[in-house]
Amino acid sequence: MFSRLLFFTALLLIPAVLRAEETPVEKAGFAKKLTIYLAKGPANACGAGCDRWIAIEGEIDREAAQRIRTFLFPVKDRQLPIYLHSPGGNVEQSYGIARFLRAHKAIARVGRTIVPGCSTGTQVDAACLKIKAAKGEVEAELTTRNAMCVSACAYLFLGATNREVAPDSVLAVHNSKLMFVVHGHPPAQVVADFRRREMVSADRDRNAFLATMGISHELSDLIKSVKFEDLHVLTRPELYRFGIDTRPLPQTQWAVEKEIRPYVRKIAQQKKGDGSAFRMMEWRLFCENKDRGRLMYVREFDEGAAGKSTVAMMAGATRAIAFGRLPARFGKYEVWSDPVPSDIVKAMLAVPHLQVDESALSSDGKPDGKSGQATFDIDTTGLEQGWTQLLASCPVAAAGPKPAGPWPAGASPSVNAAPAASPSQ
Fold it and tell me: Residue 293 CB: number of other CB atoms within 10 A?
């Protein structure tokens, strides 16, 4: 009977992929073929001292693994980070690419590469893909905001020995979809049995793959529980628990947000205790005029926590930045907002890290030694470039009275970093 099953293909695809003139993959802003190219951006675009990276984006097609090997094999600098932005695709190809990345001890991150030379069209039209396919470096920009690596892309990502998922990017998984073509008219039970055996085999292969990558078997159990039609975005505690991204303080670079009132923003997630929970934090630097900025700090706090706390920030050992008063509370968030004179802004730009000190207060308003003090550093990568952009449109003098509220007009104390887009849209 099995001789009548002449052709079989197993694929892991994003939901509702169709082979038509314009697939949902393309509608979502992804090319239908995995693209790889060398990108060059501004100073520190991919981290402190890093301005060159490898971009891998688009749907993982059936020839993707060989194309990736051909591109990466002659690359001498193995420390170049690889930024992934993909809706998934062929799972077997993802396994092959992952094993190649593991052998090369690759650094992988979830991020979107944007080529300004493609501004007249989209990032996936024919003209843009031609630019990306050209030999040499492609002038580009990089962002983790709304970047995603989902479905089979997650397997590819796991191959790297150094993995980073920024707080504003997404790594998502779901179960496989088995697709095959049957020639002839075999009995329905034969087809059903064949499908069941192949799914068992696929599960076994996935378990073996994840074990080889040093990833907790819990991830495989989770994948099996998520229907193909759905996607499960891995939470920060899951990323930590499964061994995917075990950083205690993952953070974004400072980046300009072009809102009604532009500002430079940084988001971080801080591990609490054993990593079963993380809290979200956000910093926003506004330009009020050429001589003064305004720094806002938003943090998530335990709603059941009693008492109050203070926050101090330092640029180096002697330059205090903020904050000198108690915060406003909005739901589960605390918000500080203080003016920052130009000399303090310059001090912030001159150091690689800013130190944050958080202290609990006792009932008499003094530091509570029993509750302890938390101190951590956040880096300033991207802050100087972002502040320079803000200054270009910042008024010479104050354009009116100071904001009456705890944050500038047009701002809000939201630290929701999860991208709103989904691969199937």
Answer: 24
